[in-house]
Amino acid sequence: EKVKRGTGNTDTKKENEKVKKDEPLHEKEAKEDSKTKTPEKQMPSGPTKPSEGPAKAEEEAAPSIFDEPLERVKNNDPEMTEVNVNNSDCITNEILVRFTEALEFNTVVKVFALANTRADDHVAFAIAIMLKANKTITSLNLDSNHITGKGILAIFRALLQNNTLTELRFHNQRHICGGKTEMEIAKLLKENTTLLKLGYHFELA
């Protein structure tokens, strides 16, 4: 009623000014939100589109290269005494895990070498499970990978149930083990009676 009569114009003006002041704030926030949201959406979709082709081609090519050796390991081929995939660019963690699972009940392979294959903790945990069952592998090379202290400790704990592995190499990982992990490794090594060679530079004296 006041607005209709023309009285209290000052109040309405103030209210209008407040609303106007509030509006740009909301607009700004909305714009900022949209700005922050859009790059997030664009970031993943932008670069992946062009690289999808070669990445897919690599993924398709990789299994075909490793299909034959995988089958030979699974079938316990007597001539397949070594699995060496060192420095393989196209090998994935999934394929490494498949190799590890195939080795679980293999009785021929003595050497498993996967240095510089970007293997991570998933592979390390799979190796730990494999070492508990496998009674043939004597040498394991995990140098220059992405395994953390957790993965390495899992392998050492598995060695408590393994009496055949004599050589273990896991130097130059992307993640530093740290003092706590090294202390734990030292404790587990005290209980190990089969390892003869250990390829790792301890930072902790």
Automatic annotation (TrEMBL):
Gene3D superfamilies: Ribonuclease Inhibitor (3.80.10.10)
UniProt-listed InterPro entries: LRR_dom_sf (IPR032675), TMOD (IPR004934)
Molecular functions per Gene Ontology: tropomyosin binding
Region spans: Disordered: 1-81
Localization terms from the record: Cytoplasm, Cytoskeleton
Cellular component GO terms, alphabetical: cytoskeleton
Keywords noted in UniProt: Cytoplasm, Cytoskeleton
Compositional bias (Basic and acidic residues): 11-40
Protein's recorded name: Leiomodin-1
Native species: Macaca mulatta (Rhesus macaque)
